[in-house]
Structure formats: structure tokens, C-alpha cells
């Protein structure tokens, strides 16, 4: 295989095939292009860019929050940070950024959108994902690597992982406690949309939820930082399970 | 302009002496205006002018072949090779943090970050040295919580990892906590910017946050003792906006890339006043500004208030004439104010106008370079402790010694500070190779593939017993901490926290400490490239211990730092440097004396700098040859505490150590003699031989084992405990005390 991307060993390729994507977005080229949105106050944008370009070997580019278009990206990452200082409510102002219209459209067309930490908060504020993220149970910012269990591999973000696999991923947030009403939570579980669950629920999230999917399964939000566990020098490469799934999922079903 | 009459009371209220006022009149050739009086008072404050310390700071070594920029700029700069450099400095925010802990600490972080990125470097690491009063006092717990959340608030939002530091508790910091923040940034050699207003006719541009009434006279406040009225100074504390600072960082670095910026300086202490006159003074130019153009947060601010405001997140830029738009465009993109407020002139004057009317006109040099310089009288250092101390408790049972170890491990000074550092994002930017809890913090430099290590240390108890020897021990410990992770120390920054220099016995502490620092930094080849002096750390006449804090930076030869914890069972444990000497006189500054005996006496541990350096050299060689599986230096709490900390790894690997010593058990287990490192290895023979080559004593003291920590002397068991159990107590001690 002359392809530098290691996708051959994915036994679950079919589950990665995107549902309902348009022909235009199916045009796949190597390397895939990952757009990292930069909001004023994003501070994990560079980390996501570095993980995507250096640790994954893909093409990564920054997309300024003021852009009306995402350009020709194959997937979008909304990175961590404190967009607009998070002074009102985390993500509450970012949802009005022009780029979010483009992200909504991209998601509606089946494009892959991964929101990490502040990115997850922006996705819930934007209505792309249900629920909300509120102050941690102990009201303190927590920076710690935690065991997180992969609850489903039927997603483009976990298709390279194993169901039940425990990933050691860092969290770093003050407002990461996931909440939603019981009906929403039941629905998330019934539809197999809880992707990641804390083994050690440090922030008090309802049902220990660490990451969820939208109904169409092409948008995921997660509080842990996979991009911080993507380099052997950083002590863990467990985050690659998420990022590599993304690459795998963006590949066409037949080449 | 407020036509306030200059009365002796007004002069005194500005903390200027009569003699200083006469000097102002003679420099100006006339009486100053009210605004001018304010300008002089902040620039000539202890905080900005270093008038009590400057004479002695000259004794410090400041050069080496790696030093690109030394003291005098906003931060020192060191060459790290591959055309890259690092900028770093430490600064205090002690007084504001006492008055308003959250904002005081937050703006302390903000201020030092601006010092780094005003030079063109992107901040990649922060560390903090914190000192608080005893935790059983409720107010001290509130100050701790406020300071920690202030640091977290600012650093986390800004996106710089807080990767280490130290926190110590002593009653002497009851009315005077210390918050010293160290920051380090990285850039290329050709990306260095200076705070110089070069080029007559060039525009002077104000960027960043608007100017408000906050922080007026902050620098003067930081130059006086506290009295009962300290809380009334709360309006003198600035309010920080880390989001604004993040935007300012990105905008400044982007604007610098346009090539249109000639000089840039942040507005920190003394705000617009300091940045204008310092930039002019450095370039031998004048600056003329009109305050009507300064972006203001509220209406009706007087020239005095605008010039003295310490509103945060502001910068002053001198751009190339005709290229202003390139700068404006960048700041507009980031949604920030950028306004031309003046011009560089040839006459060397700081000329401040308000709607065209001159309100201040002072030679820049008079403010920045001709501040008073005092050779304050000094006697013998004030000694808060006797030479003789109480007798040792005479421990002779395992149970007693184990209780002592637990007492030490759960003491506020030695317990795990996880409760603190988990509130800091220590991983953002994905460079943290060694974070909080390590002997030294290590970040990789992605651009070069190399790593930089940094250690922060202070020891008020040692310095109280001997400012000179105590300071040398601090330098030695920082360098040892760097050696333990495999780094070579290359440069240092210092924060001198002392009491009132007008008291000769306090001034003597400062002088002796600086002299000890000069001697040690010259010896360890760690020139001081900048720093901060914080005097008048006294409340109601009660001075803090002399508390110099060192931040020393080292370069790594290896990719990965050596971990603290024992990694595998069945490894040999070697005590590099040997068991060391101890006696009663040199035991009075130890944590054992403090925690178990509740006393302070005698002298700090004896240091032989040559022997210390040999240990460092040997350690680095051991690491570079891949012989050390773990390494941890012996410091506070001595051998027993160090061995316990080595056993607190996730694998639960402890050790069985059998020593061979004539020392009393308290000395043997808990003395804090320097120059010692505990190493675990599968190649003890090679380490012992290598140590011998370096002229370093070493002792094979035992073996790593699962789930036990045993220390004996000549087969008599002194300690025997389960690491997991004591680790749990060590890890939760701080939280328990805070919640009690």
C-alpha cells in the first residue's frame, strides 16, 4: 500500500462510512484537510493543529472565526480555550461568529465536526448538540489525565477504537459537567450516542458523560483533550484513537 | 489640569522625601505641577527605581556567552541554539495579593506575561513561588484560595501552562503573603523586540485595553509597609482581563511580523508614565503625547489619573512613520484599540499634553535614569532565631520515627500541592514533559526538538538564619533540581522579597543575600538576566523572613527528563553524594525542626559549592549515559521524605534501604545537607565508578521493592511503612487543612 495513512487495519470500516453525505463532500484526497477554527480566545487551536499535522500527518489549517466559509476542509475541529473569555457563558458568544453558520451548513451536509472542550461547549450553545456544560461539581478548574471509556465505535470519531476500551485522556476545564434533562439523556443512551464516559467522573457529569454525538453521528463534542494525548513525549497517545478514527472515517469506502 | 498646590503634605503623601523633592525641583529648574509630582513619585518609587537595591544588584554576574539580553530590558534573553532563544523573568505581586488575593495574583500573572511577549517571545510556561501565613488562620486560607484561583483564572484563559512552583507557609507571611510569578517564552533570534522609542518623527501608538482609574499608585503602594488601613488600598489593585491579554498577545506577535514596529513596551507598573519615559530614555529620544487620544474607560479622568493608571493589558508601540496602517490593521482584526497618541521627538523630553495644553514636561532621563540611588546603612542581618536550639527529641523507636515522617509528609510545606496545581492548566500547548510535582519542570521546544528545564526555589528559614548561606543554598538547590532531570543550568532570574530597607538590620539581610547570590551564581555559571526587588514586605513593623526566590533555567541534553519515582522493583538504590554530615547547629533550619520540634535555630545546612557542582556534573553524566531509572534530590525533610516521595509513583514501588552511619536517627533520616541525590538503577557498579571519576562520594543503600518503604541503619529498622497508605495522607493533607 503506497498510502502513508494507516487505515488498512480498521475492521470497522463500514461503520465509519458516512451516512447521507453529498457527492461533493465525498471527494477525498490525501492528505485530508482538517480545519481548526480560531475564535478570539481559543488557546488549544495550535495544539489541535499540531496533533493533526505532526502527529497524524494530515494537512491542517486554521479557519478564522470571521470567515463565512470553511474552504475545502474534510473535517472541522472546534478547539479548546476560552472563546470571548467565556465571560457570559462558555461558548455563548462564539455561536454568533460568522464561521458557525458555515459549520452548521457543513454539519448539515454530513461533514465531520469535532468539538473539544470549549468546542463542545460551543456545539451545545449552537444547538448542534443537546444539553449543556456547567461548572464542575467541586466548582474548581480541574486539570488531570482521566480514564475514559469508549462506549460506542459506531461513530466516525471512535471507529478506530474498541468498544469498552479505556483511554487515558486529560481534562482541563472549569465548566465540563455535562447536564441535560432525563428525556434527552435517555434518548442519547437509547440511540447509542454517548461516545465517551468517565470511568472516574471528576466533574460530576450526569451519567458520567464525557462525549456525545448528534443524531446523524457526524458531530461530536467531548470535554477531554485527545490532542494532548497524541504524542509519545506527552506520556499518552490514547487520543490518537479519536483522531485516527476521524482520518479513517474521512477516507472513501472504496479506493 | 487640577491646580493642586504642592504642599509638604502632598509631597509626603506621594512618598517622596524632602530631599527627593528638592532634587526634582533642581532637575526641572522649577516647581513640578501636580501631574509631574505624580509622575516622579511613581518613577522614583522603590518598585520602579530600585533606589535601595541598585547599588548592590551591580554585584551580580550578568553575562555569559549565552546571554543575548541581560538586565535592564523587560526580560532577559538566552540563546538556546538553532537560532532560537528564550526570554524569562520573575516578578512579584505581593502587596496587591494581600489586599485583593484573586485580582492581585491574576494581574501578577498578566504583568509578567506582557514582559515576555513585549520582547517578541510567545509565553510557553509559568511557575509560581507562593508564601502564606499559617493555615490555621482562616484569613490565610482565604488568601491562598484567592491567589490560586486568580493564577488559574488568568493563566488558564490566556493559554499558558502553569507547570510548577512552590508553596510554603510561615507565620511571618501572615500579614504579607508573597506571590512571585515566573514566565518563560520562546522566539527566534531575529524576532527580538526592545522597548526603545527610536526614530524621531515616528508615531507613538497606544494599543490594548482602555485606561481606567484602577491601579493608580500601585507602584507606590508596593513600596510602602502596610498599616491597619491596608484594606483601604483595594482601589489601588488592578483588575485583570486574561481574554484581553490573549488578544493582545496574538495581535502584538502578528503586528511584529509586519516589520513596521520599531519598539514596544508594556504598560505595567506606573502605566503610561513608565512606558513613555523608559522607551525614550533607552533610545535617547523624547516622546510627546496628547492624552485626549488615549482610549479611556470613563469620562472626566484627569491627566494625573491617566498618566498613573495601571489598567492592565495595554502596550505602547513606536512604529515606522507611514506604516501605521499595517499595525492598525492587525489590531483591528483582533478587535483591539490602536491609536496614535504622540510622536518621537529629538529633545529627550517626556512632554504630556491634554488637548494641546502642556501638563507635564520632564527630561526622560530624569525619570528613568536619574532616580535617587541610596547606599542605605546596614549593620548585621536581623536574626529572628537563637544560635542554640532545643535538644533532639531522642527518638529510639520505629513508631516515633514513623509518626515524625507522617507529620512531615502531611505538613503544609511538604504535603502534595495537587489541590493547587490541578486548578492550573499545566498541559496546554502540549509541551509539558515534566509538570508540577517534579524537581524541575520541563517543556519541549517544538521548533527545535530540544527541551528547556526550569526550577524555582526559595527558603526563608535558611535565609533567616544566614541570608548569605541561605541564598547560596537556594541557588545550589535550583541547579541540583535541574541536574536531576538531566539539564545544565544556564541563566537565572531573581525575586528579592525583603522587609523595610530603611532598617539597617533588614538592609543587611538584602546585602548579604545579594552577595551570596552573586557568589553562587558566578560559581554555577548562572548569570542573572533580570528580576525584581520587592521591599517593604512588613505589616505593622513585622518583617517577613528574608525571602529571595530564584528561578533558574537549564538546557536539556536528553529528550526525556528522568522521573522522580522508582520505576521497577529489584533496582539498586544509590545515594549520590553520600549520607552527608549533620550536627545540631546546622539542623535548626530543617523542616524537622519546624514541624516536629516547632523551633528555628542555628545555621542553615553547610554547603560546599565545589562538591555540589561535582554532584551535578556526575548526575548529568549518569543520565546522559542512560544509567538512572529515577532520580530525586534530597532537600526539605531530608532522606526519609525524599525516599517516600520516590515511592509515590503509580506502580507503588518502594525501597528497602540500609544505611551505615553514626548519626542519630533524627539527623540520619531528616537532615537537609545539600549535594545529595537518590538514584535507582540497574547499573550500580557503573554509577559508583562514574561518581568516583567525578570525585563524588556515593553509597549503595538498598534495593527497590514492591509496596514497602523500609529504612534501617546497620540493620536496625527505623521506618517501615506502606507507600500507598502514606501517599494517601500526603496527597490529601492540604485539602483536609483547607476544609477544616
Can you describe what's shown?
The complex is a heterodimer of chains A (255) and B (740). Chain A is α/β, with parallel strands linked by helices and 255 residues long. In chain A, 23% of the residues lie in helices and 23% in strands. Chain A is built from 7 helices and 11 strands. In chain A, the strands form 2 sheets. In chain A, strands 2-1-3-4-11-10-9-6-7 form a 9-stranded mixed sheet, with helices on both faces. In chain A, strands 5-8 form a two-stranded antiparallel sheet. In chain A, strand 3, helix 4 and strand 4 form a beta-alpha-beta unit. The longest helix of chain A is centred in the N-terminal third of the chain and has 11 residues. The radius of gyration of chain A is 16 Å and the shape is globular. The N terminus of chain A is likely disordered. Chain B is α+β, with helices and mostly antiparallel strands and 740 residues long. In chain B, strands 8-10-7-11-9-12-13 form a 7-stranded mixed sheet. A 7-stranded mixed sheet of chain B has the order 23-25-22-26-24-27-28, sandwiched between helices. In chain B, strands 1-2-3-6-4-5 form a 6-stranded mixed sheet. The longest helix of chain B is centred in the first third of the chain and has 21 residues. Chain B is globular and about 85 Å long. The mean pLDDT of chain B is 95.
Amino acid at each position: 500500500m503506497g498510502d502513508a495513512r494507516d487505515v488498512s487495519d480498521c475492521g470497522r470500516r463500514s461503520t465509519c462510512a458516512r451516512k447521507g453525505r453529498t457527492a461533493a463532500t465525498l471527494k477525498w484526497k490525501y492528505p485530508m484537510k482538517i480545519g481548526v477554527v480560531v475564535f478570539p480566545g481559543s488557546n488549544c487551536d495550535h495544539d489541535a493543529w499540531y496533533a493533526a499535522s505532526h502527529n497524524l500527518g494530515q494537512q491542517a489549517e486554521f479557519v478564522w472565526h470571521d470567515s463565512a466559509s470553511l474552504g475545502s476542509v474534510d473535517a472541522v475541529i472546534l478547539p479548546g480555550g476560552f472563546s470571548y473569555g467565556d465571560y457570559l457563558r462558555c461558548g455563548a458568544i462564539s455561536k454568533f461568529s460568522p464561521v458557525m453558520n458555515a459549520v452548521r451548513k457543513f454539519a448539515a451536509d454530513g461533514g465531520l465536526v469535532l468539538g473539544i472542550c470549549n468546542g463542545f461547549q460551543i456545539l451545545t450553545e449552537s444547538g448542534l448538540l443537546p444539553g449543556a456544560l456547567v461548572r464542575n461539581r467541586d466548582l474548581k478548574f480541574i486539570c488531570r489525565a482521566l480514564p475514559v471509556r469508549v462506549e460506542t465505535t459506531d461513530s466516525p470519531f471512535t471507529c478506530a477504537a474498541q468498544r469498552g476500551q479505556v483511554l487515558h485522556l486529560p481534562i482541563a476545564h472549569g465548566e465540563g459537567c455535562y447536564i441535560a434533562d432525563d428525556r434527552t439523556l435517555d434518548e442519547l443512551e437509547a440511540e447509542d450516542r454517548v461516545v465517551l464516559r468517565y470511568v472516574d467522573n471528576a466533574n460530576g457529569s450526569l451519567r458520567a458523560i464525557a462525549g456525545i454525538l448528534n443524531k446523524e453521528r457526524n458531530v461530536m463534542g467531548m470535554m477531554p483533550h485527545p490532542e494532548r494525548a497524541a504524542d509519545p513525549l506527552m506520556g499518552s497517545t490514547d487520543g490518537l484513537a479519536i483522531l485516527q478514527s476521524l482520518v479513517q472515517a474521512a477516507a472513501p469506502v472504496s479506493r | 489640569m487640577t491646580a493642586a498646590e504642592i504642599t509638604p503634605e502632598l509631597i509626603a503623601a506621594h512618598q517622596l522625601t524632602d530631599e527627593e523633592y528638592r532634587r526634582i525641583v533642581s532637575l526641572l529648574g522649577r516647581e513640578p505641577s501636580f501631574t509631574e509630582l505624580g509622575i516622579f513619585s511613581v518613577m522614583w518609587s522603590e518598585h520602579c527605581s530600585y533606589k535601595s537595591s541598585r547599588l548592590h544588584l551591580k554585584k551580580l554576574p550578568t553575562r555569559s556567552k549565552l546571554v543575548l539580553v541581560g538586565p535592564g530590558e523587560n526580560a532577559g534573553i538566552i540563546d538556546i541554539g538553532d537560532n532560537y532563544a528564550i526570554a524569562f523573568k520573575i516578578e512579584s505581586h505581593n502587596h496587591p495579593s494581600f489586599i485583593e488575593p484573586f485580582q492581585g495574583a491574576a494581574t501578577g500573572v498578566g504583568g509578567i506575561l506582557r514582559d515576555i511577549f513585549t520582547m517578541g517571545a510567545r509565553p510557553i510556561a509559568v511557575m509560581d513561588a507562593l508564601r502564606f501565613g499559617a493555615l490555621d488562620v482562616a484569613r490565610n486560607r482565604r488568601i491562598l484560595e484567592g491567589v490560586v484561583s486568580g493564577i488559574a483564572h488568568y493563566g488558564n484563559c490566556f493559554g499558558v501552562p502553569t507547570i510548577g512552583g512552590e508553596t510554603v507557609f510561615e507565620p511571618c507571611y501572615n500579614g504579607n503573603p508573597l506571590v512571585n510569578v515566573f514566565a518563560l517564552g520562546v522566539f527566534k533570534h531575529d524576532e527580538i523586540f526592545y522597548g526603545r522609542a527610536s526614530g524621531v518623527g515616528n508615531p507613538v501608538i497606544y494599543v490594548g485595553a482602555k485606561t481606567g482609574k484602577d491601579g493608580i499608585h500601585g507602584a507606590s503602594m508596593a513600596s510602602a509597609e502596610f498599616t491597619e488601613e491596608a484594606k483601604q488600598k483595594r482601589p489601588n489593585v488592578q483588575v485583570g482581563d486574561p481574554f484581553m491579554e490573549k488578544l493582545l498577545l496574538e495581535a502584538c506577535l502578528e503586528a511584529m511580523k509586519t516589520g513596521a514596529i520599531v519598539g514596544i513596551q508594556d504598560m505595567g507598573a506606573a502605566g503610561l508614565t513608565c512606558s513613555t519615559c523608559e522607551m525614550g530614555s533607552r533610545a535617547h529620544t523624547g516622546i510627546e503625547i496628547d492624552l485626549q487620544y488615549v482610549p479611556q474607560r470613563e469620562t472626566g479622568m484627569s491627566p494625573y489619573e491617566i498618566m498613573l493608571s495601571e489598567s492592565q493589558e495595554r502596550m505602547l508601540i513606536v512604529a515606522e512613520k507611514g506604516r501605521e496602517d499595517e499595525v492598525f490593521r492587525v489590531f483591528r482584526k483582533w478587535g483591539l484599540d490602536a491609536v496614535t497618541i504622540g510622536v518621537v521627538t529629538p529633545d529627550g523630553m517626556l512632554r504630556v499634553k491634554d488637548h494641546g495644553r502642556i501638563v507635564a514636561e520632564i527630561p526622560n532621563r530624569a525619570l528613568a535614569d536619574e532616580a535617587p540611588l541610596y547606599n542605605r546603612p546596614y549593620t548585621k542581618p536581623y536574626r529572628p532565631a537563637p544560635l542554640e536550639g532545643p535538644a533532639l527529641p531522642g527518638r529510639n523507636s520505629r513508631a516515633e520515627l514513623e509518626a515524625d515522617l507522617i507529620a512531615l509528609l502531611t505538613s503544609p510545606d511538604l504535603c502534595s500541592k495537587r489541590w493547587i496545581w490541578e486548578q492550573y492548566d499545566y498541559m496546554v500547548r502540549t509541551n509539558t514533559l515534566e509538570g508540577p510535582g517534579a524537581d524541575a519542570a520541563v517543556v519541549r521546544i517544538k521548533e527545535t526538538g530540544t527541551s528547556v528545564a526550569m526550577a524555582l526555589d526559595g527558603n526563608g528559614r535558611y535565609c533567616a538564619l544566614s541570608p548569605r548561606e541561605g541564598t547560596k543554598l537556594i541557588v545550589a538547590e535550583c541547579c541540583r533540581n535541574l541536574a536531576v532531570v538531566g539539564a545544565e543550568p544556564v541563566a537565572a532570574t531573581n525575586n528579592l522579597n525583603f522587609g523595610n530597607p530603611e532598617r539597617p538590620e533588614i538592609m543587611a539581610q538584602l546585602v548579604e543575600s545579594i552577595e551570596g547570590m552573586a557568589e553562587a551564581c558566578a560559581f554555577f555559571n548562572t548569570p542573572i538576566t533580570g528580576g525584581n526587588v520587592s521591599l517593604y514586605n512588613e505589616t505593622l513593623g513585622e518583617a517577613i523572613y528574608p525571602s529571595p526566590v530564584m528561578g533558574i533555567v537549564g538546557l536539556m541534553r536528553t529528550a526525556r527528563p528522568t522521573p522522580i519515582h522508582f520505576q521497577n522493583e529489584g533496582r539498586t538504590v544509590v545515594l549520590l553524594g553520600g549520607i552527608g554530615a549533620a550536627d545540631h547547629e546546622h539542623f535548626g533550619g530543617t523542616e524537622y525542626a519546624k514541624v516536629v520540634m516547632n523551633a528555628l535555630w542555628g545555621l542553615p545546612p553547610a554547603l560546599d559549592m565545589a562538591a555540589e557542582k561535582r554532584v551535578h556534573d556526575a548526575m548529568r553524566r549518569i543520565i546522559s549515559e542512560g544509567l538512572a531509572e529515577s532520580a530525586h534530590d534530597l532537600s526539605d525533610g531530608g532522606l526519609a521524605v525524599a525516599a517516600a516521595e520516590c515511592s509515590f509513583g503509580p506502580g507503588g514501588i518502594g525501597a528497602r534501604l540500609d544505611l551505615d552511619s553514626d548519626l542519630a536517627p533524627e539527623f540520619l533520616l531528616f537532615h537537609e545537607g545539600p549535594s545529595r541525590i537518590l538514584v535507582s538503577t540497574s547499573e550500580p557498579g557503573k554509577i559508583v565508578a562514574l561518581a568516583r571519576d567525578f570525585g563524588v562520594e556515593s553509597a549503595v543503600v538498598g534495593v527497590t521493592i514492591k509496596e514497602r518503604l523500609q529504612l534501617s541503619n546497620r540493620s536496625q529498622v527505623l521506618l517501615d511503612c506502606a507507600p500507598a497508605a502514606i501517599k494517601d495522607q500526603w496527597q490529601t493533607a492540604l485539602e483536609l487543612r483547607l476544609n477544616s
